[in-house]
Write a structure and sequence with these properties.
- This protein is α+β, with helices and mostly antiparallel strands.
- Among the domains are: about 120 residues, no CATH class; about 70 residues, no CATH class; about 70 residues; about 70 residues, Signal recognition particle alu RNA binding heterodimer, srp9/1 (2-Layer Sandwich); about 90 residues.
- About 45% of the residues lie in helices and about 15% in strands.
- The strands form nine sheets. The chain has a four-stranded antiparallel β-sheet, with no helix packed on it.
- A hairpin with a 4-residue loop joins strand 20 and strand 21.
Length: about 700
């Protein structure tokens, strides 16, 4: 600018803003210059790169012909050189005679020793500046040849990794290893490596494959005869985002220090947050709360089951080596959870063999949830009772088996908790165990335990129980309040038969006295169909008010007919100005509400209806369960031993509560391990703990004395 001005050639000078390149690491301004480079002519093997890509199993599949495939189709020659000091020096020597300019590429130390003008020691330094000291004599003109100053793109080093890791072809002892391990089973890296490592690995493999075709008699090229790729599968990793959805970065302040997570939640929780959340290639928002959720959702659930087992196993002195229960002595519940265990092992094995990490993790998580919230909860009475009969030992044996086998199955996902379970439950308690769970053989599926019908049966019972609890919640009826009847609505005779076989379990789960079946729930519920005006506005324009009025004028029977039509065919119709107008299920929504005296909830296969009218006997039983609940709460707060017996105190002026207590005194005492329930005195000074709670909306004082 100054030179132009001095010479009188400057027409105009002004300031203006424009985009400018900056270093992505330190944010320093950058200046770009055109430089001469060495290139590898990858465009000549473009067809090989594209065709060999079709042999790679990509996760997700869309990358094959999408991000990576498109990049290969638009392939350009690879600029292989870099003007740096550190790096792998290009093994290219050029004659200093400008008129000659002969070039030679060396391929080994042996070749350098043969051709160098200087003595080359056995431990020659192949990096700069050592390598730069060696010159060659030009075969063309006899002049001096020197190595070019450039070094190789470091991505060429990484792309050569599958071969270089074995020292091939110079390390004769490890030649067989390349043959055994090339191409590798899978690689994994972030999605931005489609233009980085994924490409350089693929390009180097393609170049070697093409080299074999040109020189088929070269023994060193034999490993590349059948493969133009160096990896059979590639699992992409999505970016880790901060809580605002931005790429996690220390410079922007959205970075979470890993040591904090490892110290507070642990490595297993961190691993499960990623492995059990989304597919590896999906970008995921990372927060401390998300790790806590993974810990609570899975790890704490499993740890609670483990602690439950160890507490009662110690009380009952259960020893796996000393007690063996035969298959014929197992309950249906035992056989079901063992069927689910082997189904889970089968699912996890198949998913991992197909490199599907998320499905594997979800299967394990589902099993642990079923183990905790169905098997253990449904088996508590078996562990709690004092008799040490075969049924009790069967429960211990079954739960112990599940915990040991699941520790092996989840070992690749949560190595530390798996090891803790294995060391405490297997080592020293079972024969033929390994020193560590990570040295164990992978669990084997025993087909004899798989039982499709039993699994379907219990799955249905679980769904009915969930819907029943949902119906209770909608009508604000506590689970502790018994009800008279549950009506299961199903058109499938198989499902009705399955529910009948699980009737006792379902009634106990829902705290209900009887179960019946029907195929029509219209006598218990009513429907309302509402138009979606955001979808219908563009369609009907000025006629929208007419549509609205037509829907508002309909009765429950018309709504039911519309709902049935939507369920069977996905459409329904309404008469507008003497014309039948069709609506799709995307243009209307169906809402269901219970009729008086009932509470209903619908699932994908069935609906559940509860009769909600209460008798005096049911109310009294519900009050008794409330009393048990609050006394058990006091035991927990007092941190009593599980087998500790107490003297319970209940103070209230409400006759209904006192009557319920008297009617169900034996039940309350049995459930709370109370030797006595006192209602005519309440001396707080001698109590271990006491508090005031609400029962049926009334204040009741509770206290316990440990005996």
């Amino acid at each position: 600018m100054k030179d132009l001005k001095i010479r009188g050639l400057l027409f105009k000078s002004q300031m203006y803003e424009h985009s400018y390149p900056h270093c992505w690491r330190c944010d320093s301004p950058l200046m770009y210059f055109a430089r001469a480079s060495w290139f590898i002519k990858t465009t000549e093997i473009k067809d090989v790169l594209v065709s060999e890509n079709q042999r790679i199993d990509w996760h997700p599949e869309t990358i094959k012909n999408g991000r990576f495939g498109k990049f290969l189709e638009n392939n350009v020659d690879w600029a292989i050189s870099r003007n740096r000091y550190w790096g792998t020096p290009l093994p290219i020597w050029v004659c200093e005679n400008i008129d000659c300019n002969h070039k030679e590429v060396l391929g080994s130390i042996a070749e350098l020793k043969t051709k160098a003008n200087e003595d080359v020691p056995d431990d020659v330094e192949l990096h700069r500046p050592g390598i730069d000291a060696f010159t060659l004599t030009c075969d063309k003109c006899g002049g001096v040849m020197k190595r070019v100053p450039e070094v190789a793109d470091t991505w060429f080093d990484s792309g050569s990794m599958p071969i270089a890791q074995w020292g091939y072809p110079h390390n004769a002892e490890d030649k067989h290893r390349l043959a055994e391990n090339y191409p590798c089973d899978f690689i994994s890296e972030a999605q931005d490596q489609t233009r980085g490592w994924f490409y350089t690995l693929h390009a180097v493999a393609g170049l070697l494959h093409e080299a074999y075709k040109k020189f088929p008699d070269d023994p060193e090229l034999q490993p590349f005869k059948d493969w133009g790729l160096s990896y059979k599968r590639c699992i992409l990793l999505g970016l880790i985002l901060d809580e605002t959805g931005q790429k996690m970065s220390k410079s922007r302040g959205g970075y979470v220090e890993p040591s904090v997570i490892l110290q507070d939640q642990g490595a297993d929780a961190l691993r499960w947050n990623f492995l059990g959340n989304v597919d590896p290639w999906v970008p995921v928002r990372f927060t401390v709360d998300s790790v806590r959720d993974a810990q609570r959702r899975f790890l704490l659930t499993l740890r609670n089951v483990y602690q439950f087992f160890t507490i009662y196993a110690r009380i009952d002195e259960y020893e796996p080596k000393g007690i063996q229960i035969g298959t014929g002595q197992l309950s249906r519940l035992d056989r079901w959870i063992l069927a689910r265990l082997h189904r889970t092992i089968k699912t996890v094995t198949g998913s991992l063999e197909n490199y599907d990490v998320l499905s594997s993790a979800k299967a394990i998580e589902k099993f642990v949830d079923e183990l905790s919230n169905w098997y253990v909860r449904r088996s508590r009475d078996r562990f709690w009772r004092s008799e040490k009969d075969d049924d009790k030992w069967a429960a211990y044996q079954t739960l112990h088996t599940c915990l040991v086998e699941i520790s092996k199955t989840m070992a690749p996902f949560t190595p530390f908790l798996s090891e803790e379970l294995y060391q405490n439950l297997a080592v020293g308690h079972l024969d033929d165990v390994k020193e560590s769970v990570h040295l164990e053989s992978w669990p084997v599926v025993e087909e004899k335990w798989l039982d499709d019908e039993l699994e379907a049966e219990v799955e249905l019972a679980i769904e009915i129980a969930k819907l029943g609890r949902s119906a209770r919640k909608a009508e604000k009826i506590r689970v502790r309040q018994p009800l008279t009847e549950v009506i299961v609505v199903s058109h499938d005779e198989k499902d009705r038969e399955r529910a009948r076989r699980q009737e006792k379990v379902i009634l106990d789960e829902l705290n209900i006295k009887a179960m019946s079946f029907t195929t029509d729930q219209s006598q218990f519920v009513q429907y309302k169909v509402t138009p979606n005006f955001s979808k219908l506005g563009p369609r009907f324009g000025p006629k929208v008010p007419i549509v609205k009025k037509a829907f508002e004028s309909m009765d429950s029977e018309q709504f039911k007919a519309m709902r049935d039509s939507l369920e069977s065919g996905g459409t329904c119709y309404v008469e507008l100005d003497d014309e039948k107008v069709t609506f799709t299920d995307a243009e209307v929504s169906v809402a269901m509400s219970s009729k008086d005296g009932y509470a209903a909830a619908s699932g994908s296969r069935i609906a559940v209806v509860l009769a909600t009218e209460l008798t005096e006997e049911l109310e009294a039983e519900g009050i008794a369960r409330e009393l048990v609940h609050h006394l058990q709460g006091l035991r927990k707060k007092a941190d009593l031993e599980y087998q500790s017996r107490i003297k319970a105190f209940v103070r209230t002026d409400d006759s209904k509560i006192l009557d319920a207590l008297e009617q169900h005194r034996d039940y309350i005492m049995s459930e709370t391990l109370a030797s006595e329930i006192v209602t005519d005195s309440f001396d707080e000074s001698g109590m271990k703990i006491h508090e005031t709670c609400k029962v049926n909306g009334l204040k009741v004082d509770f206290g316990i004395v440990v005996e």
